[in-house]
Automatic annotation (TrEMBL):
Organism: Streptomyces yokosukanensis
Gene3D superfamilies tied to this protein: 2,3-Dihydroxybiphenyl 1,2-Dioxygenase, domain 1 (3.10.180.10)
Keywords assigned by UniProt, alphabetized: Metal-binding
Protein name: Oxidoreductase
MF (Gene Ontology): metal ion binding; methylmalonyl-CoA epimerase activity
Pfam families reported in the protein's UniProt record: Glyoxalase
SUPFAM superfamilies: Glyoxalase/Bleomycin resistance protein/Dihydroxybiphenyl dioxygenase
Start and end residues of each VOC domain: 8-123, 141-259
InterPro entries in the record: Glyas_Bleomycin-R_OHBP_Dase, Glyas_Fos-R_dOase_dom, MMCE/EMCE_epimerase, VOC_core
């Protein structure tokens, strides 16, 4: 799609068997704010974000990614995108209409090439939010989401063709081929990452903190809580952002980050980095080494929700 209609990442919705434990984690040590809850569904906001919520949790028998939600500027843009997807043979789950979720808005849902549910919406009411203060180590906003795909080139091309994403950088190596594509819909280096994996699943969900001090304080709080650190703290080369990855109670990976690179889209040319260079993974050299067992854990479980629309 030549015209970019998406503006930003709104929220990521997860379904989990142990709903209470997951809710305690995100509304507790992770630092999100519980804004609404009803009959096994909870909506959690980031205090610094105008979005109504950045994570939705749903009680379910199977662990799955329910959906990834992106914003559009106007209802007309929502309609234009829906028409484009229909004309291109993309399977729509719903047609553009008023949304029943907190903040309302106008949007629709569809399946991406791997079977994930994606939602696009406009005119969602702005949530009352606030400035995050110095040393306050709670998420300011949702930063980005990374998904696993068995064919990252196909998935990248689909997002470029249908949703107007642009490639910012790629990581790979001669013996593996490409293993990560970083995709953008704004000057932010990436709001979507596509990682090579044996199956489609969620790789990680990332939350922006106020600054380096808040990032380290948040990392320390998670460590003291007994949450399992997967990887970090460190600083990536692609995106130049910091990272501390933790596993949530159901084995999904969540990240604290800050200082994501803002690039000049008119002059930017994608890099092709090799992960054989240690500075690509971690410029600081402070994180634990990425190894094959850890990489397999980051592939997560097979997503049980592919090409199955969430019930709500």
């Amino acid at each position: 799609m030549s015209t970019r209609l998406l503006t930003h990442l709104r929220h990521v919705d997860l379904a989990v068997p142990d709903y209470a434990k997951q809710l305690d984690f995100y509304a507790g040590v992770w630092g999100l704010t519980r804004v609404s809850e009803d009959d096994g569904i909870a909506f959690l906001a980031a205090e610094g974000s105008p979005e109504q919520y950045v994570i939705r949790l749903r009680q379910a028998d199977d662990k799955r990614l329910d959906l990834i939600s992106y914003g559009a500027a106007t209802p007309a843009d929502v309609d234009t995108l829906a028409e484009h997807l229909l004309a291109s043979g993309v399977q729509l789950i719903t047609r553009p209409d008023t949304l029943p979720t907190p903040g309302g808005g106008y949007g629709f849902r569809f399946f991406d090439v791997d079977g994930r549910t994606v939602e696009v919406s406009s005119d969602v009411a702005v949530r009352a939010h606030r400035r995050i203060e110095e040393r306050e180590s709670v998420p300011v906003r949702l930063s980005h989401v990374v998904v696993n795909s068995p064919d990252i080139t196909r998935t990248r091309r689909w997002y470029e063709q249908h949703l107007g994403f642009a490639l910012s950088d790629t990581i790979g190596a001669p013996h593996t081929g490409d293993v990560m594509n970083f995709m953008r819909i704004s000057s932010q280096h990436h709001s979507l990452g596509i990682a090579a994996g044996p199956h489609a699943s969620i790789h990680h969900v990332s939350f922006e903190l106020r600054g380096l001090d808040e990032f380290m304080r948040g990392t320390g709080r998670l460590l003291r809580s007994g949450a399992r650190l997967a990887w970090g703290p460190g600083r990536h080369l692609a995106g130049d952002n910091t990272f501390s990855y933790f596993f949530d109670p159901h084995g999904n990976t969540v990240e604290y980050t800050t200082e994501m690179e803002e690039l000049d889209e008119d002059t930017w040319h994608p890099h092709h980095y090799t992960f054989l260079d240690e500075e690509v993974s971690d410029q600081w050299g402070t994180a634990n080494a990425m190894n094959e067992p850890l990489a397999k854990e980051l592939h997560n479980d097979v997503d049980r929700g592919l090409f199955i629309a969430p019930p709500v």
